[in-house]
What we know:
By secondary structure, the protein is an all-alpha fold. The protein has one domain (about 1-170). It has helices spanning about 1-5, 10-20, 20-30, 35-55, 60-70, 80-100, 110-120, 125-135, 150-170.
Amino acid sequence: MQSSVKIPKAASVLVSSYGLLSWLDSVVTGLERDQPRRTNAALRVLSCLWTSLKEHPGAVAGLILKLLLALLPKLHLKLNAKILRVYLDALSGSAAAATIQLPWLLTLSDVNAVLRYCQGILGPVQDLEDLLLFGPEFAHQRIQKDATKELASVRYHLRCFILTRLKQASQSK
Length: 173
């Protein structure tokens, strides 16, 4: 499935004519936290699907966003930083596209849930909590250092996700 959705035309046909998103919804709903291989496979399919369709997302962005948010509580507690980066990249991209027309799709509680999950992998995320609370003006004053490049990359993608939420909130006022 992952190979098929990497091709934009195939991804578009699978979504519009074959109910791929409905099938993915049932897969995500049926996942358990103790199934990391299946969860990672679903994440990779969603990520590839987003990458293929991001040039012309339409309503698909909102559906992918909701599936990615539904996948969060099923992600393994010790997720590999590289896979977490893939998750955050797809989440940030789909959130940016979806909330242009539907700003209510990404709530503050969604962002806080993602932040809490990432805290378990990154450790302290006070700089990102401050960014969420005080806005981008405060963002560059306190930046947490990470032990590895992978964790720094995860923190960067999480920062982009939070900035997407802040931008969406300022535009909906």
